[in-house]
Structures are given as C-alpha cells and as structure tokens.
Design brief:
mainly alpha
C-alpha cells in the first residue's frame, strides 16, 4: 500500500487496516519463529514498511492539526 492510498483512507479505516496488518505481521513472525518457511518471504518486510508509512502519515496529520 503506498502513501497516496493511505492518505485516502479515513481515520477509522486506517486504524482498522493497521490492526489487520499488525495481526498478519504477528502471525508471520510466529511462523518464522516456529521454523515454518513463509509462503512469501518478502511479505514481512512489506508489512513493516506499510506500518511505518501509516505511522508517518498519522504523525504528519497530528502536527498539522
């Protein structure tokens, strides 16, 4: 998900999406810790980047207000 897509979401939608992504990241990390090879190894990195983008955009909006 790119920054433009994140900015188009409302605050509630963004929060819901962030919670879903965090859950997915937790599941992927637990699979990796258990020794199960992930289906898509790059997915963890992509999720972490998306979370960072979301936090950055939320921080920017807080500073503008």
């Amino acid at each position: 998900m790119n920054a433009d897509d994140i900015r188009e979401l409302s605050a509630d939608e963004r929060e819901q999406h962030r919670d879903d992504i965090k859950t997915e990241l937790m599941e992927l990390r637990s699979q990796a810790a258990a020794g199960t090879p992930p289906e898509n190894p790059g997915r963890i990195r992509a999720i972490k980047r998306t979370l960072a983008r979301m936090k950055t955009i939320e921080r920017e909006e807080e500073q503008q207000a």
